[in-house]
Design a protein that fits this description.
By secondary structure, the chain is an all-alpha fold. It folds into two domains: about 1-240, no CATH class; about 245-375, no CATH class. Helix content is about 70%, strand content about 0%. It contains twelve helices and no strands. The chain has helices spanning about 1-15, 20-35, 45-55, 55-75, 85-110, 130-160, 165-195, 205-265, 285-300, 315-330, 335-340, 355-375. The two termini are about 50 Å apart.
Amino acid sequence: MTAAAVWQWRQVRRHPGDNALKALAVGVSTIAFVLLMSVTDVPATAALHHVLDAVSFSNIAWTLLFYIYSIFFLLATADDDRVDPVQVHRRVILEFGVYLLFIVPGLFALLSADPGFFGKNRDPATHPTLRNIVYYVGVSGYPILAWTVGTLRAVRYLRLLSHRGARVATIGVVAALGLMMLGVNGVSLIRQGLYIVYPGSRWPPLRVLYNAGRLSGQVLLVLSIVSVPLTAAFSWLIAQRRSWGERRLARELAPLWATLVEEFPHVRLPVGALESPDHLARRPPLDRMMIEISDGLAYLAEWSTAPQAGGEVADQVGSALEAKRWFEQAPWTGSSASVGAVAELPSWEPDFAGDRWRARATWMVGLAKELRDGGLLHERMVTR
């Protein structure tokens, strides 16, 4: 969760104007901090845990989490043309005031109580008191209200969300906080009501439901939150693996490409001809090299001296290269048409239907290797 929080703040740095992302980063950081402070075996966290426990930080963090949950989906839809951003921000401030109206009296009732008032072996007569009611309504009532409002907004947000991974993560967060709200806050309010109606009673099944909702919700929440950066990291690794493979193929194709663009300079595409305005959609250099190699082979076919079935493709390409170079060194011997004596121009490159760029690149690499072994390719690169 700490790593996920760092990743969220990195996203905020990349998108500083995204207020929903800022709220999410605060929420993830809150969860990470609470989990970190729960590790009491370390002296530093143990001392800080004691200080935070004295001010009931767990209640503050718990209710703050539901406030962030509610406003996140409000902020996430602020870019919708039908929504006024000014009204959204006013609503965020207003709902923070509602949050304070719940949590401040609740914390005051807790922190100003006599020692043992809210303890395990408390007097049954304390349950129907105003202090007890204010505390539980403030601390447990607010998460129920915020989750209900936030979930209604989440339904609308999911309709606008097209990314499958983001939709799954969002649904996971909604379900996780629902489990936590029902298990902790719902059970707490039900149990307090039963204590008032049936003084001195015990309800062990409710404790089981409390722990089940709390723990299962926390596990699902963590999994849902970390799934987003993990998915992004996995996609990045796949992209890097493809990029490394493309760079390796480009290095292996470099001699063939350098030879053909030197023999036929006009096959070189203009700079930017294959590039999209969106920098994320630009074609990699390998695509440009493959197109220029294909065009170069097509022009070289005019210098072929043997029919297409007359031998291996590499031999035919090599013979055409030698014929072109021989003619350029002794142009008085005749025209290029007299050198290329075949009736039909050969088509050396196989038909790679569809998006089979890797098979096409592999074929070109094999051709480049055979020509290089024959000493027919330039090892130096051609400067654009």
